[in-house]
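Recap from last week: sequence in, structure out.
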Amino acid sequence: MSSSPALSARGSRLALLVVGLCWLAVLFDGLDMFIYGSVLPHLLETKTFGLTPDQAGDLGSYATFGMLVGALAAGTVADRIGRKKLMVACVILFSLASGVCALADSVAVFGLGRTLAGVGLGGLLPTAISMVSDYAPRGRGALVIGLLMTAHHAGGILSAYVAKWLIDPVGWRAAFWVCVAPLLFAPVLARFLPESLSFLVAKGRTEEARELAARYDVELPAAKSGKQGTADRWTNLVNLFRGGEWVQTVLYWLASFGGLLLVYGVATWLPTLMRAEGYELGSALSFVVVFNLGGIVGMLVAGRAADRFGAPRISAIWFALTAAGVFLLSVHMPMTVTMIVVFLTGVFLNSAQTMIYATVSIRSHPGNRATAVGWTSGMGRFGAVFGPWLGGQLLAADQGDWGFTAFALAGVSSMVFIGIAALRGAKPADGQDSPQEKQLAAH
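Predicted structure tokens:
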């Protein structure tokens, strides 16, 4: 394919359009994900719906369970209706689900809204990653995926400000009405976002895909020789347990479980636990902002560090630093010191989980790599469900001081498991992992 300056300019503009639209969609995803944690201290203090800490933990787990369902269903649904339509559907679903939460008159209705929102949130992110991968300029795939992942943390920052600005003067329901606003973005997404090139090729719409790729000077994905059958997929899964591989596989799964328990436990309970440590509500929400700023920085630097020192080593070190930071949050320190600790914890926390996926990708055989990474992520999602529940149980038992300690222990466990797996692992399999796999997010 030729690459004239005019074509390259059009390709860059198209990439900017796709990445920009997907970035906004993931921003709204992050807003909807983090808004519950941002309003939770207020819900508990005012005893809204008669909410107790253990019920609050259950509600947090409903969203992450919905995300598990959405993430597992995303690939199958996208193969049927297309990446673009699925993204639009996910935005509509989690926006309407936030409306259910805003109108809820009971814990049951509120929980239904959070579960439905989780399904939309879980389906959006992997689909958005696929979209930007298709349209990224040549040699810039890792960069644009890294930029896309910053949107999730930007949504977390926005959620804290929405809560700070609206809860006192208007009430908590207004925060969820703001999360309905992305519904207005769905028609924009439907109008301007092009369909995935991979989907067009897979559906045999090759001429349409070729014309679009040529028009905007982007690479046309190679057509796969055939669809992988159910038997083939099960064979790939069984291969993860053949010989001594089962030990390595279980270690990766345990590391991922602890990592996502830590990620979603802290994301849900950070403001409430900081409130329990004696900080004012405004300060507790400011910690959410600083934490997510750290997350943005971490997503941008982790890949470079892994390229230089190795993903397994960086993952283990990052989890150790995360555990130390989370544990320090249980100690009431001067505000400036606390802000620094929260920021650094945000830097290491999310990217530590990302490096688990990079490690699995590097250590897996190329023919089994997608299965290995997918199942490691899937098993980790159970930790994402367990983390919010655990925080609620500790607070319900009046053991809030142990909240940060419990999450820190999860970080230590992931450090140990990924460290042992890295030491046991054979040399990297033939073939290098793609930059996109290294940038795969932990959400």
